[in-house]
TrEMBL record:
It comes from Thermophilibacter immobilis. ATP binds at residue 604. This is Leucine--tRNA ligase. One of its GO terms (biological process) is leucyl-tRNA aminoacylation. Pfam families: Anticodon_1, tRNA-synt_1, tRNA-synt_1_2, tRNA-synt_1g.
Length: 841
């Protein structure tokens, strides 16, 4: 038996597979398709353990799918634009593309060493003009559809990254990339109208049965649909009583609390608030509040724990149902860009308003009461506002009955109560309000003031405004001779921005913003279907064959941003008639994290990173792959463990020997089950039992238990060939073939070597079918059952598995004849395959 030499075997098969183009997508329409997709990496250096795990999972799926007869698309590429490349270029006085390509080359070498079965012919980088050209093309199509616009509004500016950020990229109040606190800046920026798709993005989550519930919950929460009403309040004259003809609308989810409005709120950014206080004594305090609020992120401003700040404006609005004046305050917990940007303050029902009222000593009018509240008896029939303040220590969170609420008094109040609809109807009849739905999702801010990204294909002309770059002029290519190290930006680089207007021919200025890199990763999976198309981003035919991707594997950190944007792009491209799919990914697997031995996240700054090469060098890629999949189920976190790697290596070597031994004892003919002796029969049964289990575990992506099953088969086979006794030659060969083929998706080089050298096969093991296992053969011929007398086990008997109940009852009574002597059997209960209980007195 030859020694297992991982390095020699792996080098040999990587070269052979490449020479034979083994992983080229077949594109065989006669076969069912399977699109296995892993999130492509950002090339910031060599691959790390997280990548190794992600791609090993995908590779095992892809290889197994192929053996199960699918036409498999298994591509890979690089998400190559982005800030780290630019920062590295600045630091090292080089070009972003140079740094990026070095990293890509290194990552590809590691991918090849890991033996990943990608169709390398389809590989691309998003920074290739052949790719980003089509991103620009899609941008223009979206522009034509009215899905792109430019707007000047306060945006999140990261002072460290020197660019604006999308809402989604400010997480817990800080920049997702560098952790700095973004500032608000008033800037003209480009947006994608993702909010046109809010409802569909929410509804279709229900169709994604193959997605983890928590990811769907995160998306639903992010989209944030609220049902409620818009209610119009008249602005009063400075006298505080006479209505002007101006109205201010609020959005509320609790129209039932309308009679409890104690004050009215505007956000610090509100131009109306600025107008109301202009030139009054209230102006300085307002200005101070506004300046302070600008320094706080909107997430923090809304935080329920945060102290609220407000100032009075000196003015009032009038409540539409009873004409009662409510003072207008400016409060920092109110946001400009949610709802209508104005809030009716109901301290009785809303905890934030309650805290605010306590702090500034405003009314807390009780309009909703629980029946066990002493106030309830006093106010339950009261229609007028008689009691204007309560000494509660919290707002009323539970449902209750409306009090002091005019004609609605006595109705049940609460978020989904009858009073909500009744009051909306009441307002609607009088033209004072209407039912509405609000979404928390904002339009996607896509422009970035950084060089290393896909240029926005627009030109600004002083006469014609924003004019799209004509399709025939695409791509707008990034210049590669900018002096980034000297701080040069696209906006300062005349050869890039100087151009002429495509419409009127006058001198004009090219837009120098680039697109958020998340735009590049929103459709790359479509390009893989048809990566060399130079007339279109992809052909509809190719995409309709492969999409949606059957399995998408990647990190949970993309649960909101990348996955939501990709779903949005898919729907837009469908509406443009370019594809049929409604959703991009049928099944989503979020793999767990790889942590260090102490359970800490691996990171360069902590210095606890285990690079993949530190395992591949001593043990080989197959050991690495086996260890990664064996250590835990794919979706679970695990702590890196040298012992598991060493154990995986021991198993690979042992299985290597066992396969050789079986192969040497083996013969060609099919297994003749009827003629097997007891020892062979037992091996035949465990082969089938474990094989059935292994197959179903594989189908569910539970590789760790699938591997355990193969290990058990190997153990049984090892005993069979080493212990004395007859060996059935056909069975030996059958078992060897099964071990090699079931491990082939996981340890590809090992399997291919054994397939050829030990088993003498010609074609690749991946062109061989997944082995068949017989669930019936797995069933034992005889079973051991317990015999109980009145519930106590007295003996065990072995009976034929298919024996009728009467026979089993008889055999059981024989087995305990001694204990039954002198007693009368009243009843015999047979539980098939498990036990017989005898009731005797
Ligand atoms: C009156 C009221 C009474 C409210 C009550 C709640 C409870 P969701 O569920 O998140 O949609 N609101 C509306 N616009 C706002 C803005 N721009 N900034 C801050 N808060 C705003 O929240 C809807 C509720 O948030 C609305 O319903 C409003 O307060 C507040 F017992 O109106 B409510
Ligand atoms: Zn022009």
């Amino acid at each position: 038996i030859p020694a297992y030499d991982a390095e020699a075997i792996e080098t040999k098969w990587q070269a052979t597979w490449e020479a034979e183009d083994l992983y080229k997508t077949e594109e065989d329409p006669a076969k069912p398709k399977k699109y296995i997709l892993e999130m492509f990496p950002y090339p910031s250096g060599d691959l790390h353990m997280g990548h190794a795990r992600n791609y090993t999972i995908g590779d095992a799926m892809a290889r197994q799918a192929r053996m199960r007869g699918f036409d498999v698309l298994h591509p890979m590429g690089f998400d190559a634009f982005g800030l780290p490349a630019e920062n590295a270029a600045i630091k090292h006085h080089t070009q972003a593309s140079v740094w990026t390509h070095q990293n890509i080359d290194q990552a590809v070498r590691t991918m090849r060493r890991m033996g990943f079965s990608y169709d390398y012919d389809r590989m691309f980088n998003t920074c290739d003009p052949e790719y980003y050209k089509w991103g620009q093309w899609i941008f223009l199509k979206m522009w034509e559809k009215g899905l792109v616009y430019r707007d000047t509004s306060p945006v999140n500016w990261c002072p460290t990254c020197q660019t604006v950020l999308a809402n989604e990229q400010v997480t817990d109040g800080v920049c997702w990339r560098c952790g700095s606190v973004p500032e608000k800046r008033e800037l003209s920026q480009w947006y994608f109208r993702i909010t046109d798709y809010s409802q569909e993005l929410l509804d279709d989550l229900d169709r994604l049965d193959g997605w983890p519930e928590r990811v769907k919950a995160m998306q639903a929460n992010w989209i944030g649909r609220s049902e409620g009403a818009e209610i119009d309040f008249a602005l009063a004259d400075p006298d505080g009583r006479t209505p002007t003809d101006r109205t201010i609308s609020v959005f509320t989810t609790r129209p039932d609390t309308l009679f409890g409005v104690s004050f009215f709120l505007l956000p610090p950014e509100s131009p109306l608030a600025a107008e109301l206080v202009a030139g009054t004594a209230y102006e300085p305090a307002f200005a101070e509040l506004k300046a302070a609020a600008e320094k706080v992120s909107s997430v923090d401003r809304q935080g329920s724990e945060r102290e609220k700040h407000g100032v009075f404006t000196g003015r009032y609005v009038l409540n539409p149902v009873n004409g009662r004046p409510a003072p207008i305050w400016v409060a920092d917990y109110v946001l400009m860009d949610y709802g209508t940007g104005a809030v009716m303050g109901v301290p009785c029902g809303d905890q934030r308003d309650f805290d605010f009222a306590r702090k500034y000593d405003l009314e807390i009018a009780p309009i909703i009461c629980a029946p066990d509240d002493p106030l309830y008896d006093e106010l339950k029939d009261e229609r007028e506002l008689r009691v204007r303040s309560v000494d509660w220590d919290r707002a009323m969170a539970a449902e209750g009955y409306l009090v002091q609420s005019g004609p609605f008094t006595g109705m049940r109040g609460g978020k989904h109560s009858e009073a909500v609809d009744k009051i909306i109807d009441f307002l609607a009849e009088r033209g004072l309000g209407r039912k509405t739905v609000q979404f928390r999702l904002r339009d996607w801010l896509i422009s970035r003031q950084r060089y290393w990204g896909n240029p926005i294909p627009m030109i600004h002309c002083d006469c014609c405004g924003d004019v799209p770059v004509p399709y025939e002029d695409l791509p707008v290519t990034l210049p590669d001779d900018l002096d980034l190290g000297a701080g040069e930006t696209l906006a300062e680089y005349a050869p890039f921005y100087e151009t002429t207007c495509p419409r009127c021919g006058r001198p004009a200025r090219r837009i120098t913003d680039t697109m958020d890199t998340f735009t590049c990763s929103s459709w790359y999976y479509l390009r893989y279907c048809d990566p060399h198309n130079d007339e279109m981003p992809f052909s509809k035919e190719a995409v309709d064959r492969w999409m949606p991707a059957d399995n998408y594997i990647g990190g949970i950190e993309h649960a909101i941003l990348h996955l939501l944007y990709s779903r949005f792009f898919t729907k837009v491209l469908r509406d443009l008639g370019l594809i049929d799919a409604d959703e991009p990914f049928t099944n989503l697997l979020c793999q767990g994290m790889v942590k260090d031995e102490r359970g800490e996240t691996m990171s360069k700054s902590k210095g606890n990173v285990v690079p993949p090469s530190s395992v591949i060098d001593p043990y080989g890629a197959d050991t690495m792959r086996l260890a990664i999949l064996f250590i835990a189920p794919p979706e679970k976190d695990f702590n890196w463990d040298e012992e598991v790697v060493a154990g995986a290596n021991r198993f690979i070597k042992r299985a290597w020997r066992v396969v050789w031994q079986l192969a040497q004892a083996g013969g060609e003919s099919p297994v003749d089950v009827a003629s097997l002796d007891a020892r062979s029969k037992a091996l035949w049964r465990s082969l089938n039992a474990l094989g059935v289990k292994c197959t179903s575990d594989f189908d569910r992506g539970q590789f760790n238990t699938a591997i355990s099953a193969v290990m058990e088969i190997t153990n049984a086979a090892s005993k069979y060939v080493s212990e004395p006794g007859e060996r059935d030659a056909a069975l030996c060969r059958r078992v060897a073939g099964a071990i090699v083929r079931t491990l082939a998706p996981i340890c590809p080089h090992w399997a291919e070597e054994l397939w050829h050298e030990a088993l003498g096969q010609q074609g690749s093991v991946y062109d061989a079918a997944w082995p068949e296992f017989d669930a019936n053969a797995a069933r034992a011929d005889e079973v051991q059952i317990a015999v109980q007398i009145k519930g106590k086990v007295r003996a065990h008997v072995t009976v034929p598995a298919d024996a009728p109940d009467d026979d089993v009852a008889g055999l059981a009574q024989e087995a305990v004849a001694a204990q039954l002597a002198g007693k009368t059997v009243k009843k015999v209960i047979v539980i098939k395959g498990r036990l017989v209980n005898i009731v005797a007195v």
